[in-house]
Amino acid sequence: MGIRVLIYFLSFIYDLSSASWDDKIIHTLDFIENYVLQVPMFLMTLMRYLTPTLDNMFMDSLRWVDATYADKHKSEDPTKLRPAYYPNLRQYPVKDGSTHSSSTAEALSMFLLRFAKRGAISLAVFAASYIPYVGRLVLPAASFYTFNRAVGLGPAALIFGTGILLPRRYLVIFLQTYFASRSLVRELLEPYFSRVHFTSDQKRRWFRSREGLLFGFGIGFYALLRVPLLGVLIYGIAEASTAYLVTKITDPPPPPERSAGFAAGELEWRNKHEFLKLSLGELDKLSEKPPPYAEADPNPPGGEAEARAAVHGGLWE
């Protein structure tokens, strides 16, 4: 903003109509603002900490989903239907999903700290990409590091090789789209995590179990958020849609007085395979009452990692 103001005042002293350097500076600043720092996304997300509108929208949408589900299945045996989400979830005390504090100031300060840290890293990587000779490899290397943990060595190596050939602008957009989509989903799920409290490790495992679906959900809405003038409206729709998503990837929460152990039982997505086999028109067929959260999990935490280790170990025997 300060550089824009400086250029504006310089235009009164110097004739910039025939110069091009000022336009290049403005375009670079716009790119950094919109893609490197993700300022529009930051401003929309900031509203959650200033007004309860988005939280209320999530809960109202959850109540509507419950009512629609009950009306759609009113002719079926009630004992075979899932319990409602809204009545119990509304009884949970609302605390920040990261700090577990009811202080708005503390939650806001933690959000600003997360954004500042993310913005500083993005700016540092972007600036490093201009270093002579080695700068060309900075963004591809960042892509490899990011996707090696997410999708494995082979796809990450392919992304690294492709990144060397892509212009810097498109590689930045590609990387920031990935990170912004993940951040968007985490913020949209905040009304759920502010009530059902997970430890940092539990939340990481919760997201890991559902990361494919959540990434697809997030990147779709992120693309729509980029539409000029409609971004704020789309953010509201995304929050309402998250309420429906929660009913498909989590179990109905018990009353608060019986919630001990519930979060630990949610780390693995139990009906993942059944859900992913359904078409869009059949999503509501996944309506059987889920097993009690205290029941022994057929896919215990760490089971996927152990199976993966066994497979990879067999390859080297």
From TrEMBL:
<protein>
    <recommendedName>
        <fullName>Transmembrane protein UsgS</fullName>
    </recommendedName>
</protein>
<feature type="region of interest" description="Disordered">
    <location>
        <begin position="285"/>
        <end position="317"/>
    </location>
</feature>
<feature type="transmembrane region" description="Helical">
    <location>
        <begin position="213"/>
        <end position="238"/>
    </location>
</feature>
<keyword id="KW-0812">Transmembrane</keyword>
<feature type="compositionally biased region" description="Pro residues">
    <location>
        <begin position="289"/>
        <end position="301"/>
    </location>
</feature>
<keyword id="KW-1133">Transmembrane helix</keyword>
<feature type="transmembrane region" description="Helical">
    <location>
        <begin position="145"/>
        <end position="166"/>
    </location>
</feature>
<feature type="transmembrane region" description="Helical">
    <location>
        <begin position="120"/>
        <end position="139"/>
    </location>
</feature>
<keyword id="KW-0472">Membrane</keyword>
